[in-house]
Design a protein that fits this description.
About 30% of the residues lie in helices and about 25% in strands. The protein is α/β, with parallel strands linked by helices and about 550 residues long. Among the domains are: about 55-195, Rossmann fold, CATH 3.40.50.980; about 455-555, 2-Layer Sandwich (GMP Synthetase, Chain A, domain 3). The protein is globular, with a radius of gyration of 23 Å.
C-alpha cells in the first residue's frame, strides 16, 4: 500500500481482510509530513495567537525546522539524544519535534500543565540533554534544572529581548533564545537517514503502583496513528481537503499523533489555538472561522459543547466528523450530536500510549453504539482474555483486552529503563495486554468495563493515584493519603482523596484548599483532588500499602 494515500474501503469486513501494513524501508517523519506533498506551498498550520492569525505552509515549517535542527546540532545534540518539548499549541511545538527527527534526536512531549515534580521527574528520567520551553514554564524549569543531571540546555521561545539570561549557565545548564537560534542558521539541513525502527519519542504514562513510565516509540508510531485517524475521521483526510482541530494539548498522543501529525501525513491543515481553559461558545466560533471539518474532542469537551443551544443555527459550521477518546461516550453525548447536527458523525476510538490507536468507530462502516469502544481497526487483531490464565473468552464474558498488531513496529519498543515491565506487557503468545477489562458482544463491538489497576480516567487524562498521594504527603498536615476515582457527570471520573491528618488541630476547608493548590503546583491542574475527605485512619495491607479498593467500596456505599 502507499503511505502517501491511504486506501479507502466501503465495507468494514473487506477492510479487515485486505488492509496490510507495508512500512517503507526508509522513513523520517519530518520528510513524510512536510516534503512529499504535491503542493508544499499549501497551508499546513493556521495559528491563532495573541498577535492574531499566522499561517504556515509545509515549506515554511520545513525551512524553520531545518534551521532549528542545524542550531541544535551546533549545540552538540546528537542522534539518540532526548529533547524535551514543553510548548502548548504553538507552531514551535511541532517545529521542535521535526527538527529533532531531522537530526536523529528523540522527542519527549510534555505538557505546560505539569508542575515542578511532574516535569522534573520526566526530564530526569528520560535523561533529556535539552528542553524547549514556553515562557509560561520557564520559572518552573529554572527551579528544577539542578535536579536534572543530564540537562545541558534550556531553550525558551522568543528572542533575546524577551528571554532572560541568554548565554548564562546556571547549575551546568545554559539558556538560549529559540528565535535567535533559528535566525542564526540556514535552511538545507542534511536530514538523518532514518527507518521506521529509528527511535522517535518517549511519552509518559501513569501507573497505579509506581512513578510514570517512559514509553519509547520508533518512527512507525506516526504511521500507525495516521492510519487510525484516517479511519475514525471517516476516511475523509484526502490531501488538501480537510481542516483539523483539537482542544487537547499537543503533548498527548491522540492530539499529537492522531490529529496534528496525522493531518500533515495526509496533507491536510491543522488549527493551533493555545487556551488555558475550554469555552464551548469560543470553540464553536473557532470552528466556524477556520471551517474545521474534522475535530478530535475528548468527552469532557463534548459534554461542554452540548450546553450551547442550537449551534447549527448560531454558527455556520463545516463540521463533518467528531472523534473522541479517553473514556466511553455516553448515550446522552451521542444522541446530542445526532439530534443537533444534520450531517455530523460521532466516532469514539480507543488506544494507549504504548499500543497506538487500535479500536474505534467509523460511521462509513457501522453505527456508533453509545458506550461502545467500537471494533478493531484494520491492521490489528484483538482478544478478550481471562486475566488469570490468558485463555480466550467467548462473547459476553468480561476479560482483559489484548491486541496483536499486523506489524510489531507500530507498537512501543520498550518502557524506558524498565525491561521487566516491558516483558510483562506481552503474553507468551505475543499478545499485548492493555490492563483494561472489556466485554465483546455478538456483533463484535467492544465495551469498556474497568481498569485492572487503579488508574483514574478523568477528563480524558490517565492519572496514577500513587503520584497524587505522594504530592499530598508533601503537606506537613497530611499523615497518610489514599486516592481513587469516583463517578462524575462532566469528567467521567473525578479524583477523590482520603486524607489522614497529622493532628487534630486543623481547619478542614483551609486544609482542603491547601492540598488542592499543592497538587496543582507539583503535578498538574487536572490531577488535583476535586473531593477530599478527612479520615482517622486508612485501610492498609499487612505491608502498609493503601487498599484503594476498600476506599472505592466505601465511596460506593456512601
Amino acid at each position: 500500500m502507499s503511505w502517501t494515500v491511504m486506501p479507502s474501503f466501503e465495507d468494514y469486513e473487506r477492510a479487515r481482510e485486505e488492509f496490510a501494513w507495508d512500512l517503507p524501508g526508509e522513513f523520517n517523519p519530518a520528510v513524510d509530513f512536510l516534503r512529499k506533498h504535491e503542493d508544499t506551498g499549501r497551508t499546513a498550520l493556521r495559528y491563532e495567537g495573541d498577535d492574531g492569525l499566522e499561517t504556515y505552509s509545509f515549506e515554511d515549517l520545513d525551512d524553520r525546522s531545518d534551521r532549528l535542527a542545524a542550531a541544535l546540532a551546533d549545540l552538540g545534540v546528537e542522534p539518540g539524544d532526548r529533547i524535551g518539548v514543553v510548548v502548548p499549541q504553538k507552531p514551535d511545538n511541532p517545529v521542535t519535534h521535526l527538527a529533532n527527527w531531522k537530526l536523529g534526536a528523540v522527542s519527549v512531549p510534555l505538557t505546560v500543565l505539569f508542575g515542578r515534580d511532574a516535569l522534573q521527574y520526566r526530564l530526569a528520567d528520560s535523561e533529556a540533554t535539552a528542553v524547549v520551553v514556553d515562557p509560561s514554564v520557564r520559572d518552573t524549569v529554572d527551579e528544577i534544572r539542578g535536579e536534572c543531571p543530564a540537562l545541558e540546555r534550556v531553550i525558551e521561545l522568543g528572542g533575546r529581548e524577551a528571554v532572560t539570561g541568554v548565554g548564562e549557565t546556571t547549575d551546568g545548564v545554559t539558556t538560549h533564545a529559540f528565535d535567535d537560534l533559528i535566525a542564526a542558521y540556514e535552511t538545507g539541513f542534511d536530514v538523518y537517514d532514518a527507518t521506521p525502527e529509528t527511535p522517535t519519542a518517549i511519552m509518559y504514562t501513569s501507573g497505579s503502583t509506581g512513578p510514570p513510565k517512559g514509553v519509547l516509540h520508533s518512527h512507525a508510531l506516526w504511521l500507525g496513528r495516521a492510519a487510525a485517524a484516517y479511519n475514525y475521521f471517516d476516511q475523509g483526510l484526502a490531501e488538501g481537503k480537510a481542516t483539523l482541530w483539537t482542544p487537547a494539548d499537543w503533548a498527548w498522543g491522540a492530539a499529537l499523533g492522531g490529529t496534528l501529525f496525522a493531518a500533515w501525513h495526509h496533507g491536510c491543515t491543522i488549527v493551533g489555538w493555545p487556551r488555558d481553559g475550554f469555552d464551548p461558545e469560543a470553540a464553536f466560533d473557532l470552528m466556524e472561522r477556520h471551517e474545521v471539518t474534522k475535530a478530535f474532542m475528548p468527552p469532557t469537551a463534548l459534554r461542554l459543547l452540548s450546553s450551547v443551544d442550537d449551534p447549527e443555527r448560531e454558527y455556520d459550521l463545516a463540521l463533518e466528523t467528531l472523534a473522541s477518546a479517553g473514556e466511553p461516550l455516553t448515550s446522552e453525548v451521542v444522541d446530542w450530536v445526532r439530534e443537533t447536527f444534520d450531517d455530523v458523525s460521532i466516532n469514539d476510538f480507543y488506544g494507549q500510549t504504548e499500543l497506538n490507536l487500535v479500536v474505534g468507530n467509523s460511521d462509513d462502516w457501522f453505527d456508533t453504539r453509545p458506550g461502545s469502544m467500537g471494533k478493531p481497526f484494520p491492521g490489528y487483531e484483538v482478544r478478550v482474555l481471562d486475566p488469570e490464565t490468558y485463555e480466550p473468552l467467548e462473547a459476553g464474558e468480561v476479560g482483559e483486552l489484548a491486541v496483536e498488531p499486523g506489524d510489531r513496529r507500530v507498537f512501543f519498543d520498550e518502557y524506558w529503563g524498565l525491561p521487566e515491565k516491558t516483558e510483562a506487557k506481552r503474553t507468551d503468545e505475543g499478545w499485548f495486554l492493555t490492563g483494561d477489562l472489556v466485554e465483546r458482544d455478538d456483533d463484535g463491538y467492544l465495551w469498556f468495563v474497568s481498569r485492572t489497576d487503579d488508574v483514574i480516567l478523568t477528563s480524558g487524562y490517565r492519572v496514577g493515584p500513587m503520584e497524587v498521594e505522594e504530592a499530598i504527603l508533601h503537606h506537613p498536615e497530611a499523615e497518610q493519603a489514599g486516592v481513587v476515582g469516583v463517578p462524575d457527570d462532566t469528567r467521567g471520573e473525578a479524583i477523590k482523596a482520603y486524607v489522614q491528618p497529622a493532628s487534630d488541630d486543623y481547619d478542614p476547608e483551609t486544609l482542603r484548599e491547601e492540598i488542592r493548590d499543592l497538587v496543582r503546583d507539583r503535578l498538574a491542574e487536572y490531577e488535583y483532588p476535586k473531593y477530599i475527605e478527612f479520615v482517622q485512619s486508612l485501610p492498609t495491607t499487612t505491608t502498609g500499602k493503601i487498599k484503594r479498593r476498600s476506599l472505592r467500596d466505601r465511596n460506593d456505599a456512601s
